[in-house]
Design the sequence.
């Protein structure tokens, strides 16, 4: 899949600045999942799914129902939308939609949400706290999008936060199959299906200071680092015991700044950014480096990157996977880099040369044992 986009121009003028519409961003786009398969996925216990219904028989006219679902007939043929999160982790074909967007950092990626809307279906005017690319699949949908602006929020029902419908609009267009709409975090938008429609939303997370500080502190406690404590040997007694002086406040801030600026903090942040959204599935039996050569000799074998796995490189030489720091010697740096660049699957013949040394085989065994990659045999008949 090729995204028809001038990436340099997009990053300079649109990314996190303003919404933009990319007509035929994916030319001759073919749906990666059918509405029937999406509906079936929303019946699974482990899937994160919900239906947003407009013109519902409620005081507010809105209703949100969370899956798993048993049937859909009761919702009728209009005015509702089915949304399923992280479909890329369930359907490999949907996962392929991530590759064209890898000009952005892997660690920013959240998931691919897929929605199916009946005629007049939508989730109402709202803002998201993440950046999103919305790819139109089958059907047509009208989108109204605004720049960031002061807004009044309301909550017509539980789990649904909307904004006033009269926001200032800069994009008001109908999207057809293959069109791509980019919406920065904080920009109000509202999409209404003109006919039964599929949409694919590639979301990029934008964590807040509070989220990062909380996660960093939790990780520091778990790893027993950043243990330096507050001291004030030169303090002078305040006029009252309940007072916090400017000197004390500055000392606490300096302690926190020192912690965030430390090498330990860099390591913790890299661990956090490499964590997968959902738990990775580790092999039942650990793989050893000595087993790798034989695995690479299987003619029908492939190595697959697990859905949701993040293999990141820090400072050009240190690698992290799912919160773990990898031991990658210099002789295996090229092998680890190839794994980090990899998306989806690769045939073993493409990897034999790279993983021909004991050091590189040890790295491959480690990422398999962490659940980030796995071997599989294509047993399809020739």
Sequence:
């Amino acid at each position: 899949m090729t995204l028809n986009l001038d990436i340099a121009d997009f990053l300079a003028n649109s990314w996190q600045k303003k919404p933009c519409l990319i007509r035929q961003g994916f030319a001759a786009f073919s749906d990666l999942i059918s509405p029937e398969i999406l509906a079936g996925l929303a019946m699974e216990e482990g899937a994160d799914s919900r239906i947003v219904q407009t013109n519902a028989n409620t005081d507010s006219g809105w209703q949100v129902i969370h899956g798993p679902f048993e049937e859909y007939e009761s919702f009728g043929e209009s005015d509702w939308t089915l949304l399923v999160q992280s479909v890329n982790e369930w359907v490999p074909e949907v996962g392929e939609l991530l590759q064209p967007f890898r000009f952005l950092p892997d660690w920013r990626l959240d998931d691919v949400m897929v929605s199916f809307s009946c005629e007049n279906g939508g989730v109402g005017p709202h803002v998201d706290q993440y950046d999103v690319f919305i790819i139109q699949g089958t059907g047509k949908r009208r989108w109204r999008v605004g720049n960031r602006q002061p807004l009044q929020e309301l909550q017509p029902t539980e789990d649904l936060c909307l904004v006033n419908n009269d926001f200032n609009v800069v994009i008001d267009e109908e999207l057809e199959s293959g069109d791509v709409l980019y919406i920065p975090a904080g920009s109000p938008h509202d999409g209404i299906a003109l006919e039964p429609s599929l949409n694919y939303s590639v979301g990029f997370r934008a964590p807040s200071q509070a989220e990062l500080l909380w996660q960093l502190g939790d990780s520091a406690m778990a790893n027993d680092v950043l243990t330096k404590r507050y001291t004030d040997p030169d303090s002078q007694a305040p006029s009252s015991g309940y007072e916090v002086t400017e000197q004390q406040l500055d000392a606490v801030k300096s302690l926190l700044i020192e912690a965030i600026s430390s090498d330990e903090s860099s390591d913790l942040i890299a661990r956090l950014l490499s964590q997968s959204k959902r738990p990775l599935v580790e092999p039942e039996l650990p793989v050893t480096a000595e087993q790798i050569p034989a695995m690479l000799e299987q003619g029908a074998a492939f190595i697959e990157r697990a859905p949701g796995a993040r293999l990141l490189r820090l400072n050009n030489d240190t690698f992290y996977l799912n919160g773990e720091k990898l031991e990658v010697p210099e002789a295996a740096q090229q092998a680890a880099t190839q794994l980090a660049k990899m998306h989806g699957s690769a045939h073993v013949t493409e990897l034999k040369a790279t993983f021909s040394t004991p050091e590189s085989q040890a790295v491959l065994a480690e990422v398999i044992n962490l659940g980030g990659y796995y071997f599989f045999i294509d047993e399809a008949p020739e």
Observations:
- The first strand starts at residue 20 and ends at 22.
- The radius of gyration is 24 Å.
- The chain has nine helices and 19 strands.
- The mean pLDDT is 93.
